[in-house]
Amino acid sequence: MGRQAVTIRDVAREANVSVATVSRALNGHSNVAEPVRRLVVEVANRMRYSPHAAARSLSSRSTQTIGVVLPDLHGEFFSELIRGIDSLARTAGRHLLLSSYHGDPDEQAAALRAMRGRVDGLLVMSPYAERPGFLAENLPQPLPVVLISTRQDEPAWPVFEIDNHAGAVAMTRHLLSLGHRHLAFIGGPVHNHDARERLRGFRDAIAEQGDAHGSEFGGDFDEASGHRAGLQILAADARPDAVFAANDMMALGCLYAFAQAGLQVPRDVALAGFDDIPLARFVHPSLTTMRVSIAELGANALKRLLAQIDASEPAAVEHHVLLPELVVRQSSGGSEQAGTAKRAKRK
User: What residues does the HTH lacI-type domain cover (predicted)?
Assistant: First the structure.
């Protein structure tokens, strides 16, 4: 009988490390300490371990592709998010498979199921994750998954999100500090977790002021809904001192509505947004906003997913929160802080 071939598990057992560590060491991954790499290589050579490329491909079924499922691909927020993900993916030698579902839960469920067998891991942003069983029923098992700006019904996957509540409180307090007492808020989609948290922050900051009051207008996180809300604000019985839009795209739509009506921002009404998309600093007047490192958010989520894929084991259920920063520009009427930002505080 011929000598039985040495397997990667044999090498791992002899070196007293995991199979994943042997794989990373022999495939040149940078996240292996040099002494461990030398040990693995020495043991593999001594045992005459010779990995078979075709067998390795069949056993791992690696596609070198990452799936990304988002609510939409339109708009600067998603462009920045994808830019951050794609930049790291290129560095890691991975491809991206993108899908969006435009607010339909059945479409998102189908998009998640369609990723089965096509990707090594998934990045998901979902407003439907709070529905009992939605992700568990539709995510391909046991595919590595990291969530972005998604609230889970029961914590089961790592998640990266923005502290939207703290950001909205910081922006509302900024507008109040300038003496504004009647504030209008343009909200986002009612089923969107980020939008709900920003509305909650606005309400909490108004309530703590005592002598201030707020009015609320609906929006959908796009320029058109911001423009519609701007027209509604103009038609209201009393014009607010300041308008806080739950994202920059709506703030820009509102700014256009005000300009059409001949109002000057911030002389006639102050205006602020949230996200700090690249366009925010180039409009006139430049937009006061809460800076979210959107590309960094995407890159950090992918970094965690790649670590999970390389480890070949379930990830710890971690909650990573990114604190936004207040960036004061011309549109709020305060003293512009060029190149500086005040970080929001968590309550």
Answer: 6-60
